[in-house]
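Researcher: Next entry in the queue.
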Amino acid sequence: MFDFLLSEEKKMRRHAANWLEVADRVYKFRRDQLSTQQGQQLIAAAGEVKLRLNEKADASKLKLSIEKLEGVLRDTGGRLYPTSSMVENVEFFLVAAIVILGLRAYFVQPFKIPTNSMWPSYYGMTHELFKPGEEPNILERAGRLLAFGATHFETKAPAEGEVLVPVNGDLRIVYSEEPARTLWIFPTVKREYTFMVDGSMTKLQVPAEFDLERVLEERIGGGRGSMQTLLQEKVRGLGKAPESSMLRFASAGKRYEQRVYWVPLGARVRRGESIVSFDIHTGDLLFVDRITYNFFPPKVGQGFVFKTENIDSPYMQRGGQPIQQYYIKRLVGLPGDKLEIRAPNFIRDGGSDAADPPGQLFRNGAPITGADAFAANAAKRGTYSGYTNAGLLGIGEVAEVPANSYMALGDNSPNSQDSRYWGYVPEKDVVGKPLFIYYPLSKRWGIAN
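Model: Structure for this entry, 449 residues:
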């Protein structure tokens, strides 16, 4: 890299050493294919370069010996010399790939936060809703993609009229799980939502981990309530049962028909107008430290990355097969620990009411410590929503962590599927702890907490 700082003699001596390495490689790999004369010529030419190096000959004499060796190598090198630039590039990328795979397997692994179960400590996919006429242009989209990993999603009205969505009997918006590809190569699954305007349907696909209801809550209700609450209001406003029909869906690779009820969202659109227009910002991309846990055991309070394939629970299956992914939660329990969520007062609807005091997470009879997120949840500080009772940590329940296992919870307790639902993390499936958030380029960039 800094050859321009070297004298001519030092440059030539470095070149000579490189040529000797090539000669040694050719001799070792091809000596059984060389004639006796070729072998002697190669040994003699390489020996002359070594002699000039030992004599500390000047650059001109060393150059003559190198040129002689190069001529012999062209005659004896076969596929090893001369090498084309294509071969050199392929070798470079192969070596780089091996190094990267080694680092990923044993030291540092990149990881993407897909959901908001750890929000606001780590961000999963978030959205930014646009009003009609305020959508970013092409250049702005390119800049937002580079800086924040923002991808634009939009669906246009196929006709003029009121927008309706299909719901099931529990007033939950229904959707399909359709096969798709990331970067046109890697297979994945996307959620496909359906909208109807004046009898015509249009569809919108989003990543499977993204919940479109959060966008619709903001688009339709201005964030004043959950989607189910808003739909209940719309149904009551109809004064009659909503229209129904059979609609085809897909899930876990199977297709089926389901009766749905068409509920108006209370929004009228013109043909070609956006029903909804928004950006999805990528979840935090971070590096995971894979080496520390080989020497030091995990500590309560640390961010905690693990594999899911050996967690035996219906919650960890898709289409009857174990989910093989990496999850990130916060470690709350070691083997033998006893965990519980105590409610200071009766918590309505599992703690979803803002007026309810948060549940307190206890470990071995005392309020849990080890991370700022624990104290933030205990006090409902900022955007931390507090812990909610569910599953293994239902009201009055105490969970004892088995041997060779860990318990992990999400910081966003009301919206986290964690050990409360699917149980404990096997010790053998622990991967490591978050190290550094390297993307997007936001205020969270830096050391992970």
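Model: Confidence is low (pLDDT under 50) at residues 346-354.
Researcher: Noted, moving on.
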